[in-house]
Amino acid sequence: MKFANLSKALSELKKNNAFRQARTFDVNGYAIKINDSQLINFSSNDYLGLAGNRDLQTQFFEQADMAKNNWMSASSSRPLTGTNSSHTQLESLLANSYGKTKALLFNSGYHANTGILPSITDEQDLILADKFVHASLIDGLRLGNAKFKRFAHNNLEHLSQLLSTYRDQYRNVWIVSESIFSMDGDIAPLADLVALKNKHQCSLYLDEAHAIGCLGKNGLGLAEQLNLIEEVDLIIGTFGKALAGCGGFAVGNQTLIESMINFSRSWLFSTALPPINIEWNLFIWQQLASFNHERENLSKLGYLFKSGLEKSNKEFLGDSHIVPVLESGNEHVVALSSSLETKGILAMPIRSPTVPKGAERIRFSLTANMTEESVSHCLDCINDC
Ligand SMILES: Cc1ncc(COP(=O)(O)O)c(C=O)c1O
User: Among 204, 384, 216, 227, which Cα is nearest to 312's?
Assistant: First the structure.
């Protein structure tokens, strides 16, 4: 991006209803308070509803061995002295859970996606990424030396064409996709991606940020749900969404993980996450398989919400707990979000250029601790607006 004049660029954003600000919220479970108004939060990624679970937090602090670690800071990057027994234990657990050889923690999903692609590819490789992948993946594409192309969203025909045309010209080709797409809530055709990967002898990178915790018998994500973990070369996850923590991770084979350890700049050159964070991630991961009730509730609420939207003929996207309701134009989408807010519903507008012009939307995300009444109330408010 190039700004001839910063103030002018910011005024332009304001004029286009695209100016961003971080508002201050007081969050308590799925209730959220702003300026003394109590709202239901439909903009959180706390899909399992764990972030405000007091009992879990009490259990965590009761079992934590506070004498064991420098809890609050790793005090250096991982390759220096920032690797503590908590990091190693969590990495072993992640690798075991997925049945992969190795796992590596990153400071966030963003660090993972920006750091990994440049560390495992070079100019002899090609990356084919879905058109709708997250900004962190796009930054990862831009930071590396591999050539990259984008295929139309979830469009297997286009991907297949690109593979047929380009596969032979490169040493390796990585297909990159999300499992549940963050802004659209729809799901990648994973079995077909695997079939194409096998047909063209290339590799598959799957970002499960929005599926981990929510899909699969043990909450490992879409690849687990479809019994395809073995077929995916790299699975990326985050602790910052359904797992109510902080940090990201990758699981894959030894060569891939060792390449990240040696070449991934976002891993090498940043202070590791504090042990207290990693211990919490470990505590949650050890219980991940047991959150079936939350997974069932999330899926039930998603069904209820989408059926309600269908009944009132609203245009929406998504096959998951992320349900974007379309409303063309930044101005409209901002007005709808404000109007919902006056009725007690917090649902953020997703404006262009984050999404294409004309496909602006309100992104509703459901969380497992919501009640059916709160979802019905939200539907009533949408209809009233
Ligand atoms: C698909 C996807 N990957 C990665 C990330 C980044 O994860 P984190 O929030 O842990 O940095 C996000 C965040 O929204 C995401 O949607």
Answer: 384
- Distance CA(120)–CA(234), nearest Å, equals 11
Of 107, 104, 84, nearest to 93 (Cα)? Answer: 104
Q: Which of 211, 187, 192 shows the shortest CA–CA distance to 317?
A: 187
- Give the tokens for residue 273: 């996450």
Q: Which residue lies with its CA nearest to atom 10 of ligand 1? A: 109
| Structural domains of the chain, ranges and CATH numbers in brackets | 17-50+291-384 (3.90.1150.10), 66-289 (3.40.640.10)
pTM: 0.96
Residues 6+ apart with CB under 8 A from 349: 330, 333, 334, 336, 337, 360, 361, 362
pLDDT in tens, 57-104: 999 999 987 767 688 999 999 999 999 999 999 999 999 999 999 999
Ligand 1 atom having least distance to the Cα of 133: 1
Q: Count CB neighbours of 24 within 10 A.
A: 7
Structure tokens at 90: 């969590």
State whether the beta carbon of 178 lies less than 6 angstroms from ligand 1.
Answer: yes
